[in-house]
Amino acid sequence: MNRVAAPGFFRHLWLLWGLRLDIGLNQGPGRNRFMAVAAFLLSSAPAWGLGVTFYGLMRLKPIAENDIWPFFILNLLCFVTSAVWVTWPLMSAGVDDHSELSRYAPFPISPFRLLIASTVASLFEPRALVFYAPLTGAALGFASVHPVRVKWFAVLLYVLFALLNAAWSRVALHAVLNVLREKHSAQLIGGGFLLFLGAASLIPPIDTSWLTAVGEGGVDKLDMAIILDATIALARVPSGFFGDALLELSYGYRRNALVDGVGMVFFTLMGLGIAYALLMRFHRNVGRAGPSVKESGDNDPFARTRTTYTTLLTREALDLWRNPRARLLASVPFVLAILMKLTSGRALFEYLLGASVDAWLMGGLCIYGAVVMASTFSQNTFAYDGHGLAMLIAAPVELGDVLRAKNVVQGTAAGAMALLVGLFYRVYFGKGSALDFLCAMTAVVAVVPVLLAAGNFLSLYFPVKFHASLKRRDKLPLTASMLGIVAASVGCAPFVWALRFAGKSGPSGQTLAMIALCAAFNLILYRSLLPQALRLLGQRREIVLRAVTRE
């Protein structure tokens, strides 16, 4: 009997990309593939607008005729694209979306081929098109004004730049996955945060005095030596090799462009090697049941719970506290705040927003922390603790109390997260008034009820399986993701509207009153929708149970 040949690399790549489309719609094989393609195009639609915008920017006469600005913008976009793409697993805490690391472990595919296939497949996701759209538009706009020699080589350099970012994105992804699987993941994340905070405090902030010059005399009054130095510095790091290569090709220096291309190949191979080592480490530990919980001895957390409801509250709080992804989510707003101070981002926003800058930034960070904490777990509220729903259904408790307890814990965690972020901002930046802080906290009160209400219905209509061994869930369908984004936008709208009405003069008592009024309305809306969610839970309990426990 002839042995069936193993699939080739391109076949593996095609299967991997096809399965990602199926998982993205929460569908199995045999469903309408046209819907998957349509969903892909719909979710990547912002890429077209971004690409056209930056294409037109590079063709503007003041920029196109300048000797420095085109290269500065190109190198800056290269750096920003690389930074966002590589740090995305941390910034989004979306490590559970990369399920191929475990899903295909028993398949006839070597870990090295899996790494290469998943790396290439990641470049064809909707978010990849959105992230690369500004740079793509800028590069095409630059080439239309400054003719590039050997166009096929320029295209090859673009491909190498994308592979460079994809390789180091795998490094970040596999590093985060390995950290989350460690027994002391909380200590590792906390220690890494403290080291980052300490290192950032030793780096002098970026000089933003040029903003004052621009504000007083326009761009013409700007010292171009600053822009020139920044352009050269950005071109000397691996992320700037592509922009520098385009510059060299526009002048006809093919050998210099080739050196940049060789540099990208070298750092791509280095990233793949590190990612492969981290992947093998992950596979060696994949059989473990996740981060082990330290034995508590005689300290029983349920010893002092006198009612069933308080026991459920304690259980949900412990599940959330011990969830590795919650720890990762909790660190993201603080990392963003540190990066903002390190890059003097507040000075830039102060130039744009005036006296309202601290209200915008503090509120934005607080809302972001609350949104990622509340929406991540509320939109999969019956499955983020593994097969916990099966035990709760078998237990002599009311499912309505379970849902209420989950909502209370998730809402409290989101509020506590926002409170810590607000206090950290006030201490770390030394800026922000009491009114700014109250506006930020009231905005969080406005957004959390909307997220919880939407999460209840999304969890009932779009339940997804949670893999307890890996502490991750399957992807949400596109419809559920879009509805979640809409709910977050609706919850954030009062804060945005109130501050836009306040303008650059800073928030006032009227601003706080507007946000508080919307917060009260959202709380009433949540309370009115909760009974309907409880009724649906009783009707769909078996459907939800089958979805979150399927194998």
Characteristic terms for this protein:
551 residues, two-stranded antiparallel sheet, 23 helices, 1% strand, mainly alpha, single chain
Class by SSE composition:
mainly alpha
Q: Given the C-alpha coordinates, what overall shape results?
A: globular
Order of helices and strands: HHHHHHHHHHHHHHHHHHHHHEEHH
The number of distinct β-strands equals 2
The whole-angstrom Rg is 25 Å
* Spatial separation of the terminal alpha carbons: 32 Å
Largest sheet: 2 strands, antiparallel
Q: Please give the share of residues in helix.
A: over 70%
Beta-strand percent range: under 5%
Low-pLDDT runs of 5+ residues are 26-31, 288-298
- Residue-averaged pLDDT, rounded? 78
Lateral strand order in the biggest sheet: 1-2
Number of helices: 23
List the SSEs and their pairings.
Blueprint: H1 9-24, H2 33-43, H3 46-59, H4 61-64, H5 69-91, H6 100-103, H7 111-122, H8 126-145, H9 151-181, H10 185-202, H11 209-217, H12 224-235, H13 241-251, H14 254-284, H15 308-321, H16 324-342, H17 345-353, H18 357-378, H19 388-394, H20 399-429, H21 434-461, E1 466-467, E2 472-473, H22 478-502, H23 509-549
Antiparallel strand pairs: 1-2
Helix pairs in contact: 1-7, 3-8, 5-8, 5-9, 5-12, 5-13, 7-9, 7-14, 9-13, 9-14, 10-16, 13-14, 15-20, 16-18, 16-20, 17-18, 18-20, 18-21, 18-22, 20-21, 21-22, 21-23, 22-23
